[in-house]
């Protein structure tokens, strides 16, 4: 087979729809011990998801949830507890099942607890230098068979894979917020990832109850490549004074069937996160016309208006509850 047809065949393998095995109710038991690094917005949900599969399907013997700082570890545990409380209140889980899920998680600030994990998902802050340092250490600390998976939403998986010293055992697993509810996980393969590691990861995603899709290591993978430019266009509409916050959001809800309008979603994701993603892409891919940074996004982040997490973004927020739009709409004149 020529190298061209070999790579075409490899490409077809990557892009083939998820196998039946990935959705099977019989767990594949590929990973006995799973580690999660970082228990923030995404990491706590990933730990809870893995622990739920451990408790209900016996998928893992334990889930090690690691944070370097005790304060963040406790915050992560509280987040999991509050999500579980919601599920119990809605009769989606009993108290005894909730206990089983929590009992599967080993909360720790001791990184050596991860050294014999079979699969580690990293969900720390989106900073390439920090991630590369972490992977360079993990590559030395963990057993040879440990597979590393980054939940990055926009950074290069290949760069992290090379820093780990074991690029063939490195994949991306991109979950969506809120992790407990959103069904999709993008599984990302670099040119170094072994097919066996990739297939095992796709199967694991199915085993924990999510729907895997496969993508190559490209900016934003599938969802964010389409979603984040869309959020930017909504912000630009507002910036130009073409329509109000309310009308932009309600349009995409009622006209396009989205559960949240784009400005609401930008607040929900975090305006700092949106800005960080787009600024990184503008810098790395200056020729891509879909990548633009609206001025008002920069200004809001500079003022500390980060959306839901800071109580103000395009809307005011009372904790989890969205309130009125912030007064950007005054400049909009439809006469
Ligand atoms: N844990 C447990 N349950 C939760 C939960 C959590 N963390 N968050 C929400 N829920 C439950 C609620 O209790 C509720 O349960 P019910 O159906 O039994 O009443 C259900 O989820 C729906 O929640 P709400 O009633 O509060 O509100 P909505 O019906 O509006 O749904 C939503 C909320 C699921 C967030 C929905 O608005 C939605 O799908 N929004 C779009 C989210 C989205 O696009 N996420 C992707 C963001 S992009 C991303 O993550 C990528 C990153 O890299 C940037």
TrEMBL record:
Keywords: Fatty acid metabolism, Lipid metabolism, Mitochondrion, NAD, Oxidoreductase. InterPro entries: 3-OHacyl-CoA_DH, 3-OHacyl-CoA_DH_NAD-bd, 3HC_DH_C, 6-PGluconate_DH-like_C_sf, 6PGD_dom2, Mito_3-hydroxyacyl-CoA_DH, NAD(P)-bd_dom_sf. It is found in: Mitochondrion matrix. Pfam families: 3HCDH (PF00725), 3HCDH_N (PF02737). It catalyses: a (3S)-3-hydroxyacyl-CoA + NAD(+) = a 3-oxoacyl-CoA + NADH + H(+). It comes from the Eukaryota. This is 3-hydroxyacyl-CoA dehydrogenase.
């Amino acid at each position: 087979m020529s190298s061209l047809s070999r790579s075409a065949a490899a490409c077809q393998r990557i892009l083939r729809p998820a196998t039946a095995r990935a959705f099977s109710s019989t767990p594949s038991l590929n990973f006995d011990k799973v580690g999660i690094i970082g228990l923030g917005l995404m990491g706590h949900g990933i730990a809870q998801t893995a622990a739920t599969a451990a408790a209900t399907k016996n998928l893992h013997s334990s889930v090690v949830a690691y944070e370097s700082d005790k304060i963040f570890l406790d915050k992560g545990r509280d987040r999991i507890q509050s999500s579980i409380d919601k599920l119990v209140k809605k009769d989606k889980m009993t108290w005894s099942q909730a206990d089983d899920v929590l009992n599967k998680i080993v909360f720790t600030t001791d990184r050596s607890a991860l050294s014999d994990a079979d699969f580690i998902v990293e969900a720390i802050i989106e900073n390439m230098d920090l991630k590369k340092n972490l992977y360079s250490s993990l590559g030395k600390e963990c057993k040879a068979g440990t597979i590393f998976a980054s939940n990055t939403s926009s950074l290069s998986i290949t760069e992290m894979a090379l820093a780990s010293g074991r690029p063939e055992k490195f994949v991306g697993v991109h979950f969506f917020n809120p992790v407990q509810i959103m069904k999709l996980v993008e599984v990302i393969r670099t040119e170094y990832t072994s097919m066996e590691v990739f297939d095992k990861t796709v199967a694991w995603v199915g085993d924990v109850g999510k729907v895997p899709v496969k993508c190559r290591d490209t900016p934003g993978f599938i969802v964010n490549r389409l979603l984040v430019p869309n959020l930017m266009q909504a912000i630009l509409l507002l910036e130009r004074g073409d329509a109000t916050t309310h009308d932009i959001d309600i349009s995409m809800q009622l006209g396009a069937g989205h559960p949240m309008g784009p400005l609401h979603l930008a607040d929900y994701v975090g305006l700092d996160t949106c800005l960080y993603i787009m600024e990184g892409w503008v810098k790395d891919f200056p020729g891509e016309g879909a990548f633009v940074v609206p001025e008002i996004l920069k200004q809001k982040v500079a003022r500390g208006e980060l959306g839901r997490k800071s109580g103000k973004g395009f809307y005011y927020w009372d904790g989890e509850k969205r309130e009125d739009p912030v007064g950007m709409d005054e400049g909009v004149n439809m006469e």
